[in-house]
Design brief:
The chain is an alpha/beta fold. It contains 15 helices and 14 strands. It has a single domain, classed as Alkaline Phosphatase, subunit A (3-Layer(aba) Sandwich). 53% of the residues are buried.
Length: 489
């Protein structure tokens, strides 16, 4: 068990009292029981730096998310635990690492693992979900009282439909006089991007229609992330991605408007985050900074200070469930790997939040690429257990325009060729100076000047993996630590 389990058990006994008598108790409540409502809004494949408040200079890209941040607290050092759709959500709703909840890839969680929804239902909450319903399984573990699937939501991309169904859910909660938990999952900006050839082909193949967008972007209006080469087709696809980001922002705005119109905004804790980074090479389904870092924003009326930015504390997907339970005043189950960051929402300080452990297991196509990462404010260390010089990496990010453009450019550009090869084959160890190189362009693992840093990061990786009974630990010790110990001699 992870070392956080004992802490979580203690937090369950004292944290609920804090929530009821302290900060949580200062929020005005709108249901008959006086309980706090919870609204979680997720983006699908949105990079942490694709929102305006994070410094994105794409015009008018996320005004609704920016307003939410202005009313709440934004966490800079926020990460999902695993950078792929279903496993990420399974972590959120169990507070456990994938290898401890049973959903290391696209499969159901272990039926013995407690879920957030089970505990909220027992406490009298109404549970609702909009979109991505099949990404939380088995369905009986998630106790949904209100379910709207993506085909009723414009393929998960219609702001108007999200607003309409959210309004119906809020009115039901009021009529039944129950506190609620609503998970509103936008499918934007997941591939296929708005206006792309992929989108047209997908629509024709499945005989579906996608909603249009109110804002498209020219290629000269967007920024190509530095971890990608700035090629014409890459820039074209990034522009399509940002059109989808903007439509996601409109979905966020529609849900928040429905909440306000129902008169429940002042009684509801709202969280917004993305389930992983953008579906481009070196982001989604990996362990880079652009893979797991997420734009995590929390608005808790009368608790969070509007516009505050926390750039000190690391929070993670495993922390979501314990945080919600503490805020709601609901006792937490034993066995979670995460711990509540509710005190941070009120501006307090928490110790042992100096780094984060993230993982990857397999793609939706069931291709196994085991990876582990430890990141602190300065350095990120990645262990690629699958990298043997022969195995080729395949993921969704290689569809569409970008990777094909990179492969074509690689024929004449050695720098692009090196990036393509790294993406496809990787190396067993990667070390990056995140402060100087957040886009992971220079691997320092073989740099003699960083030998001591590499040793410390290896030791920290070993410690974290041991604490949570990571099944990859024996392989890591054999492949990495054994050789490093021999070198030290």
């Amino acid at each position: 068990m992870c070392k956080f389990i004992a802490w979580a058990a203690l937090a369950a006994s004292v944290g609920c009292a804090w929530a009821a008598e302290g900060q949580a108790g200062t929020a005005t409540r709108g249901d008959a029981s006086g309980r706090l409502n919870i609204l979680l809004i997720t983006a699908d494949d949105m990079n942490y730096d694709s929102v305006g408040v994070a410094g994105c200079r794409v015009p008018e890209v996320t005004p609704n998310i920016d307003r939410l941040a202005a009313d709440g607290v934004r966490f800079i050092q926020a990460h999902v635990t695993i950078a792929v759709c279903q496993p990420c959500r399974s972590v959120l709703m169990t507070g456990r690492y994938p290898h401890r909840n049973g959903a290391m890839g696209f499969e159901p969680i272990d039926v013995k693992v407690p879920t957030l929804q089970e505990h909220l239902r027992e406490a009298g909450y109404l549970n609702g979900i909009l979109g991505k319903v099949s990404h939380l399984e088995p369905v009986e573990k998630f106790c949904w009282d209100f379910v709207v699937k993506q085909d009723e939501l414009g393929q998960g991309r219609s702001p108007a439909e999200y607003g309409r169904h959210a309004r119906a859910f809020f009115e039901r909660a009021k009529a039944e006089q129950k506190p609620f938990f609503l998970m509103a999952n936008s499918l934007d900006p997941h591939r296929p991007f708005a206006g792309s050839e992929q989108e047209r082909n997908y629509a024709e193949r499945r005989n579906v229609a996608f909603p249009g967008v109110s804002r498209s972007y020219r290629t000269d209006e967007v920024e190509v992330p530095p971890f990608l080469p700035d090629l014409p087709d890459v820039r074209r696809e990034v522009a399509q991605y940002f059109a989808s980001v903007h439509r996601c922002d409109e979905t966020v705005g529609a849900v928040l408007t429905a909440l306000a119109d129902a008169g429940l905004a002042e009684h509801t804790l709202v969280m917004f985050l993305s389930d992983n980074g953008m579906a481009f090479p070196f982001a989604k389904t990996n362990c880079y900074l652009a893979s797991t870092r997420t734009p995590w924003i929390v608005r808790w009326p009368n608790v969070t200070e509007g516009g505050r930015v926390d750039d000190r504390h690391f929070i993670s997907g495993i922390d979501f469930m314990p945080t919600v339970l503490e805020a709601a005043g609901v006792p937490a189950p034993a066995g979670m790997d995460g711990r509540s960051f509710a005190p941070l929402l009120a501006g307090r300080t928490q110790h042992e939040r100096e780094d984060v452990f993230t993982v990857f297991h397999e793609t939706s196509a069931k291709r196994a690429y085991p990876m582990r990462c430890v990141q602190n404010r300065r350095f990120g260390y990645i262990y690629n257990a699958w990298s043997d010089g022969q195995t080729v990496f395949h993921n969704e990010s290689q569809s569409g325009l970008t990777f094909r453009a990179m492969q074509a450019a690689a024929e004449n550009d050695p720098a692009v060729a090196a990036r393509v090869r790294l993406f496809q084959y990787r190396v067993p160890e990667e070390l990056y100076d995140i402060e100087k190189d957040p886009h992971a362009l220079r691997n320092l693992a073989d740099d003699p000047a960083h030998r001591d840093v590499l040793a410390r990061m290896r030791e920290r990786m070993d410690e974290v993996m041991a604490n949570c009974d990571d099944p990859l630990l024996p392989v890591f010790r054999k492949d990495v630590l054994a050789s490093s110990w021999q070198e030290a001699r």
